[in-house]
Amino acid sequence: MGIRGMLRAAALLLLIRTWLAESNGPSPTPKFHFELSSSTPEVILDLFNCKNCANEAVVQKILDRVLSTYDVRLRPNFGGAPVPVSVSIYVSSIEQISEINMDYTITMFLHQTWKDTRLAYYETNLNLTLDYRMHEKLWVPDCYFVNSKDAFVHDVTVENRVFQLHPDGTVRYGIRLTTTAACSLDLQKFPMDKQSCKLEVESYGYTVEDIVLSWEDDNAIHITDGLHIPQYTYLGRTITSKEVYFYTGSYMRLIVKFQVQREVRSYLVQVYWPTVLTTILSWISFWMNYDSSAARVTIGLTSILVLTTIDSHMRDKLPHISCIKAIDIYILVCLFFVFLSLLEYVYINYLFFSQVPRRNHRRCRKPRRVVARYRYQEVVVANVQDGLINVEDRVEDRAGPLPDSPMQAHLASQESLGSLVFTSEQAQLATSESLSPLSSASSQTQLATGESLSDLPSTSEQTLPDCTIHFHGFLTNDSIIPIKIHSRSDACDNEDSEESLGSEESHGHGSSHTGRLKLQISQSA
Description:
Acetylcholine Binding Protein, Chain: A, 9 helices
């Protein structure tokens, strides 16, 4: 028998085997039992056994057989030992980490593996891959995410679910989903902070007496290559597990933590550099003139407004929490420096403008005193000259012309000396009489002096001080020549400015003053 004959016989037997496997009822034909010799090639044996091949009829027969007695409501090994369920996660993306909502969004593939002996089959050694429609016909663990706020299973174009059945009854269930999980952020070092966001997986209804969750291995968390998180840099992940206790029992919880670090580059451009430049801009007022009030105040207020705007912009991006953040301290320090620049301007203005009136008063007080003194002396000298002219006229009327020089006076006779003495006595009386018009003229001149000095402060009512003038001179043929005039006002020059003004004001309020003059005429015999 050649090889062709053997192949034909094998094909015929295979067709008979397939026909027998597809028959539902009892076979009316008798069963034949035959064995191939050990010298039969391995290819021929595989054709007869068909362990590495499966067609639609074989798979359909397997599913019909295992599901005919399968109860989806009961867990595997019900009433016996708990079912071990291993979990693994493949992270495809982390979209964002929100500081305001304190959460993050993650898209991943969640794989759960357990063994269900009710689904074991022996017809083939191949694994059977089933679609999402088997989800309603097979038992699956009731795992959920403890810190999840919202989640959904992707359904484009169909629900992203898959089942893999192994001959020994092992089931591997995979699902693609996106969840928004809560993440408690520590913002004390914001924006130079590191955060750790966790994801917790736990069975909702089955306690550790029914299901024991565990990570598949140490590398149960797989991260896609080139994972990019907005505003963050991915550092690594850690996986742990713990048993938690509730009123209904104890549950096994799986925890994975993702470590991320915030990128500071965007905050350097948006916050740090603008605030630094604004603070330095406020220091420009130190080099401005103190009387440039408009420019200095504008720079200071503008700097404060810019810093306040940046601070409010940052607060809009952050939650309202009670802790003090690093960015708050930084902006507060910038505001403090800008405020000090404004405070420095106020202090300089206070020092300058509080000293100016005193300096101006001291400057104006001495010129007023000097002008008043010299104008007073001019009035007194004019009055004295008028009085001396009157005295001279009276003396000439009584005694005749006076000698031209003192030397001629020694040649005078005894009679002339007697007449001179008499004339001196009469001149003294004439002098007292002539002082009355002198006093009136002095008061009139005093009023004129007050009007001329009305432009000076505190001189609206100004009078002359009490002074005594001493006159020294000698007689000539026509007049008396004055030699020296002494006035009490010269002694007033050395007094303190405030005492001089006080004495002038005390003598000037509603009092009429008359200068007392003493005339001394010296004559050599």
